[in-house]
Specification:
Order of helices and strands: HHHHHHH
Shape: globular
Number of strands: 0
Oligomer: single chain
Structural class: mainly alpha
Length: 182
């Protein structure tokens, strides 16, 4: 249970609430006389560090054959906590569309539930390429929104479209696998 991939996923679990707190409390830095942009930089840096652990935990798990049931649950949970902390913080601070965030949250919760069901049924519905592209699109959108760069809103809506598409693909894959099991 305690291996490098699971430790990296756990680090993501710890970074998510810290980043969320920083997004919602910009006065931390401005009260110290720093420019508000430092809030953006630090939140983005935490997000990038945590996102990097997402890449490495999967890579290490495959390369060192350290794939565990705990990791199969912990990794997507840590991913969701990180992205949802960023998206909710951005929405609550007025930097992201509430509708876009709502669509993403509903999809993520639904697919997380479906993933849990598939594990309990012994059905392996691994992340598809669309799911991986969705994750990258969400991470890029979050980075742009955290930094208040142009095109952040457009990138967010592209991420929403990819989120919906990959969710539909996951449901179809699960349905086929479940029917094949019957």
């Amino acid at each position: 249970m305690i291996n490098i991939p699971n430790i990296l996923a756990f680090i993501r679990l710890l970074i998510a609430p810290l980043m969320f707190w920083i997004i919602l409390n910009p006065q931390i830095f401005t009260d110290m006389g720093w420019h508000i942009s430092w809030n953006y930089y630090i939140a983005t840096l935490l997000f990038v560090i945590a996102s990097t652990t997402d890449f490495f935990d999967g890579y290490v798990a495959r390369e060192l054959d350290q794939i565990t049931i705990v990791g199969q649950i912990l990794d997507p949970l840590a991913d969701k906590m990180l992205t949802l902390a960023a998206f909710l913080g951005l929405m609550m601070s007025g930097a992201a569309s509430a509708w876009a965030i709502y669509i993403i949250i509903v999809r993520e919760l639904f697919i997380t539930g479906l993933r849990t069901l598939s594990l309990s049924e012994g059905i392996d519905v691994s992340a598809s390429m669309a799911g991986k592209v969705k994750t990258v699109a969400q991470m890029i959108a979050i980075g742009f929104l955290l930094m208040h760069w142009p095109f952040g809103d457009a990138l967010l809506w592209i991420a929403v479209a990819l989120t919906v598409y990959s969710g539909a693909e996951y449901v179809i894959g699960f349905s086929k696998a479940y029917k094949g099991k019957l």
